[in-house]
Design goal:
single chain; MutS, DNA mismatch repair protein, domain I; DNA polymerase, domain 1; Dna Ligase, domain 1; five-stranded mixed beta sheet; four-stranded antiparallel beta sheet; 22% strand
């Protein structure tokens, strides 16, 4: 993208951020499959180096599963204060180019650089300059996506990882999206991919050929989102200093869950994702909400509020388990489970616990 016209959005994403910081601080870890997280039976992968990813290890995976895939993994306990300090350095670089910065976590952010402070006319050059500054000042690499909306910028940043950048120009958006498999769309998880495939929808082009009414009938409100992104449309602005009201995660299952054992097992990766998000954003919540969607699309929530924030993965798991138990016995299969924390407070210190779950 040459001259900046209309909106120009960057999505900057650090490459294997936590693991890369650890490899930078400890040269003995370089070139090794490194996991940031707890190695115990209930440990969870918070981050994986690219060496570990070559074995299929990924974030939010149970440590026991990761070890089966790569027995030579090196586990490093998370040091969130260190990661937050590096993240502050990176955001200071962003602020030299634009005040419109929307952090998504410690390691990624959207930047609206339509009217950038340095008057750089080329978005490609701007992204290259920012990535160069990050490398020079932190010795860490970043990838960047450049486009005219947030959805496409996010897709573009994944396209040339690690340590690369990619541009999707306004006249290229529709053609780019239609060639992708639906599993490559940000926000469409494996279970939803399975349901889309059952409907004969495999690519962005397949998705674009569906009506909004059809997609809403099968996917509820999310169907409208799928309708628009299949057309490369995303009008969300970059919101600076966004006040986060909640953090959460949810999973739609390819097959409905019908037993308590299936429910507990299905809940664990959701809890791992929520705890990881809590750590990444340095927040803790006083209210925990469990969301359940049944096979007939009926939705139900259960909440519990505490006088102090939930600051351990064990308590997070315990309360979620107790709320889920109130829904038993099941009269209908469960297709979705979600957990969210609200009434958030910012942590002043990084907690010292390992990332473990206590179900």
């Amino acid at each position: 993208m040459g001259v900046l016209a209309g909106r120009t959005i960057l999505h900057v994403d650090m490459d294997a951020f936590y693991a890369s910081v650890e490899q930078l601080r400890n040269p003995e870890l370089r070139g090794k499959p490194v996991i940031v997280g707890g190695p115990g039976a209930r440990g969870v992968v918070a981050a994986a180096s690219y060496e570990a990813r070559q074995f299929g290890v990924r974030s939010a995976m149970a440590s026991s599963v990761a070890l089966r895939q790569c027995p030579d993994l090196v586990f490093v306990p998370p040091r969130f204060e260190v990661y937050k300090e590096v993240s502050r350095q990176i955001r200071a670089i962003f602020a030299e180019y634009t005040p419109l910065i929307e952090p998504l976590s410690l390691d990624e952010a959207y930047l609206d650089v339509t009217h950038n402070l340095k008057q750089v006319a080329s978005a490609t050059q701007l992204a290259r300059e920012i990535r160069g500054r990050i490398l020079a000042e932190t010795q860490l690499t970043a990838s960047a996506g450049i486009s005219y909306n947030k959805f496409l910028a996010k897709l573009a940043s994944d396209y040339r990882k690690p340590n690369g950048q990619f541009v999707i120009k306004p006249h290229e958006g529709l053609a780019f999206v239609e060639t992708l498999m639906v599993g490559q769309f940000h926000g469409i998880g494996p279970a939803t991919v399975g349901r889309l495939n059952q409907l004969g929808i495999f690519t962005g082009l397949d998705l674009r050929q569906q009506t909004e009414a059809f997609l809403r009938r099968h996917f509820g409100k999310a169907g409208s989102h799928y309708y628009h992104i299949a057309r490369a449309q995303d009008h969300r602005p970059v919101v600076a200093d966004r006040v986060r009201k909640s953090i959460g995660s949810e999973t739609t299952f390819e097959q409905d869950l019908t037993t308590p054992a299936e429910l507990w097992a299905g809940l664990q990766p959701v809890l791992a994702a929520v705890w990881a998000a809590s750590q990444r954003t340095s927040t803790a919540g006083r209210t925990l909400t469990l969301k359940v969607k049944y096979a007939d699309f009926r939705q139900l929530t259960r909440s519990r509020t505490f006088p102090a924030p939930i600051r351990s993965p064990e308590l997070l798991a315990q309360v979620s388990h107790e709320l889920l138990a109130t829904l038993l016995p099941l009269s209908l299969g469960v297709r979705l489970l979600g957990v969210a924390l609200s009434a958030l407070e910012t942590e002043t210190e990084a907690p010292g616990q390992q990332l473990t779950l206590g179900l």
